Fold this protein.
Amino acid sequence: MARSDSAAEAANTGRLKQIALTYKMTRRADKKIGFILAGVFLIILGVFLAIGFLIGHPVYLGILGFLLAFLGTAIVFGRRAERAAFGQMEGQPGAAAAVLDNIGRGWTTTPAVAMNRSQDVVHRAVGKAGIVLVAEGNPNRVKTLLAAEKKKMNRIVADVPVHDVIVGTGEGQTELKKVRTTLMKFPRVLTGPQVTATNDRLRAMGDLMSNMPLPKGPMPKGMRMPRGGPKAR
């Protein structure tokens, strides 16, 4: 019994520390967060207390108002914290991969399935919407990466739809904070078993490419790499 109590206490302590760290992170980007949260809490509580005095039940409405004020404050805090996190991640390498990693159940994500020397990168997500290729980097260069990766996907899983998303703030691009929403809006055309089969085929192809034997020793004189040879990823 003592062990379970100590474990619960440790979990609560860890949760409080996480909330405190989140608040500090949010406050760095949102200086007014404290005033906003206090205002939301007091306004909701004040409204319910006023109604309670008007109808003659200030205690009951006060308790209800306190609970709803706490809930409303938590919702506002969560949304502003998420906005602050996206603001700090915007433009950072690997930001899209972090978003995909937290997209939720039903999706399998693979970061950096394609990359070039300029650090432009394409990530892959597989779900009931099919295959979604999410690119981040220079808009002109990532289009070449996306085209090559879509061509490869069509060879491996020709019967699965392939979508592409370019992360950015320019025309035709998707903001980082809207990546998850964009993926969720794609029509669901695959069943659970089809998603599993697609992942298996992609995984098998990846294993095949990684285990492909390479010739040892120096390259024979006069021998050239074929034009269709492997490219840097």
Summary: Residues 207-233 have pLDDT under 50 and may be disordered. The CA atoms of residues 90 and 178 lie 12 Å apart.
